[in-house]
Amino acid sequence: MKYKVVARTDVGIRKAVNEDSYLAKTTHTSLGNVCMALICDGMGGLQYGEKASQTVVALFDKWFTDVFKETTEVAKDKYNLDLEIERLFLKANRLLVDYGIENNIKLGTTASLLFIIEDKYFTYHVGDTRIYKYDGRLKQITEDHTLVAAKVKNGQLTKEEAQISKEKHILLQCVGVNEILEIHKSYGICSSLDVFLLCCDGLYNRLEHQEVAEFLKNQGKVNENHMQMSIDNLISTVKNRGETDNISAMIVVPGT
């Protein structure tokens, strides 16, 4: 199974620094073709968000290149892969917590990781960056670790009320702020007909659910050049709608 992957990050119309980071890696192993995609959003309003997101990306980049490509033992079953990815998340959390203490600063980042091995996908997630899967229907396969998402889940808010709530950017989980980190995980089967979207809140804040579905509907049928143009146009649309945050998105198509 080959992969088509395109991504773009944009500083946006107001911020001076882009605190988003992303990573996409593919390789061939004894288990088949593998794709790892990661998107991170450094904490808006906190110091050194750029460093936080880049630290997580660099850690996973090094692991994929130096460890995973050398031995696929960690991916032979879900349990081993879970342990390894959790170890990396916790290591990143420890590095950032310690850095914050040593420098008397606060920094943190969200992180959403998609791992595909042939026809199986795995997601690992902290924060409010998102991973969507389109297979004829659009599904958000990560859970937002936000105060309003928790209130919706508990019946305290409707989804419509959550969209306009002043609390919608309050995170309950992110990498680098607290000693304890809870990682949301999901698993499933994918095919060449599916399309994955990884994105930060700077993108989805200005888009309706149906708009995301329409955007992804044909991405699996076109080449990477057209995919890149599509993602660039989508980011331009979001900027034209007044989004002030950094904007980042990545499309992953499992291929054939």
Could you give a short description of this structure?
This protein is an alpha+beta fold and 256 residues long. The protein is 35% helix and 26% strand.
One letter per element, helices H and strands E, the order comes to EEEHHEEEEHHEEHHHE
Mind telling me the CATH class? Alpha Beta
Q: Please report which band the strand proportion falls in: under 5%, 5-15%, 15-25%, 25-35%, 35-45% or over 45%.
A: 25-35%
Shape: globular
State mean pLDDT (0 to 100 scale).
92
Structure description:
InterPro entries: PPM-type-like_dom_sf, PPM-type_phosphatase-like_dom. The protein has 256 residues and is of the alpha+beta class. The protein has one domain (16-199): PPM-type phosphatase domain (Phosphatase 2c, domain 1, 4-Layer Sandwich), CATH 3.60.40.10. Helices cover 35% and strands 26% of the residues. It is built from 7 helices and 10 strands. It has a 5-stranded antiparallel β-sheet with strand order 1-10-9-6-7. A 5-stranded antiparallel β-sheet has the order 2-3-4-5-8, covered by helices on one side. Helix 1 packs antiparallel against helix 2. The protein is globular.
